[in-house]
């Protein structure tokens, strides 16, 4: 299925977008059907990292930031 997301929403909500091969969750989206073409698309409103999630990533980033200040 095709999936799209507007660039401004991606940059503001995911910090620049997911990296190649990264798995994400799409908790808020809308689904559109183009009857003339028989085509459908998922329009993402919000992305979240899958797996450990955003909280884990924020923790790791803070840990790295604090460890560089101590050195």
Give a structural overview:
This protein is of the alpha+beta class and 71 residues long. The chain has one domain (2-70). Helix content is 37%, strand content 35%. The protein contains two helices and three strands. Strands 1-3-2 form a three-stranded mixed sheet. The longest helix has 18 residues, at 53-70.
Task: Summarize this structure briefly.
This protein is of the alpha+beta class and 71 residues long. It is built from two helices and three strands.
Order of helices and strands: EHEEH
Q: Would you tell me the overall average pLDDT?
A: 79
Give the uncertain stretches in residue-range form: none
Structural class computed from helices and strand pairing: alpha+beta
Counting DSSP H or I runs of 4 or more residues, the number of helices is 2
> What can be said about the biggest beta sheet?
3 strands, mixed
How many angstroms separate the termini? 48 Å
Q: Determine Rg (CA atoms, Å).
A: 16 Å
Number of domains: 1
> How many beta-strand segments?
3
Overall form: elongated
Spatially, the strands of the biggest sheet line up as: 1-3-2
- Beta-strand proportion: 35-45%
Give helix % range. Answer: 25-40%
